[in-house]
Amino acid sequence: GAVVSQHPSWVICKSGTSVKIECRSLDFQATTMFWYRQFPKQSLMLMATSNEGSKATYEQGVEKDKFLINHASLTLSTLTVTSAHPEDSSFYICSAEDRGWNEKLFFGSGTQLSVL
Amino acid sequence: DAKTTQPPSMDCAEGRAANLPCNHSTISGNEYVYWYRQIHSQGPQYIIHGLKNNETNEMASLIITEDRKSSTLILPHATLRDTAVYYCIVRVGTGNQFYFGTGTSLTVIP
Fold first, then answer.
1. Chain B residue with minimal CA distance to A39?
2. Residue of A44, A47, A58, A112 to mutate for B, most B C-beta atoms under 10 A
3. Are strands B104-109 and B9-13 parallel, antiparallel or unpaired?
4. Tens digit of pLDDT for each residue in B64-78?
5. Does B95 touch chain A (CB under 8 A)?
6. Which in A41, A77, B6, B99 has the greatest CB count within 10 A?
7. What value does the mean pLDDT of chain A take?
8. What would you measure as the largest C-alpha separation in chain B, in angstroms?
């Protein structure tokens, strides 16, 4: 199946700093990518939908100025957590849609963010 | 928002079939049913999806009722490695949002 690479796998940062997470589709072009966050023992919560070349669409309650999403190419989307605080500590997961694979979504391995 | 309802947890004996139910009573005619699973601290893994007909692949079978209001994922011979949280998702199709519900935590018992 298609491969989605997400980096870094884990990151620890100080409160007030910004953290960038990359999501790449390695063997297909992804017009649409999705970003999720997941707290321990909870389900995945959709944060935003990212379309190549246009502004991301954020879910209700997600601060667009705090979670900056850029989808500049068909194989790369980035999520930047700006001025991170301890409450932003979470597991962040990206996914990409490969229309060549009959509308399947493929997921990255996730990024564990810990803000001290 | 998620449009599916699943039991929170299930057990299955190793080697037996695991049957995971999902209710999606408000599904629209053009919405697909997808199944994914997530093993602890990893990204979800695609299992199978379908629109109306039953589907089978190397991992599982998907049985969708005729009225499409519910479906069942069948893992024919469960192994310990199938222990995971299984999510049933309905979605219109390409480019549209993909919302996860609460899922079913499946434990395969030796």
1. B41
2. A44
3. parallel
4. 999 999 999 999 999
5. yes
6. A77
7. 92
8. 41
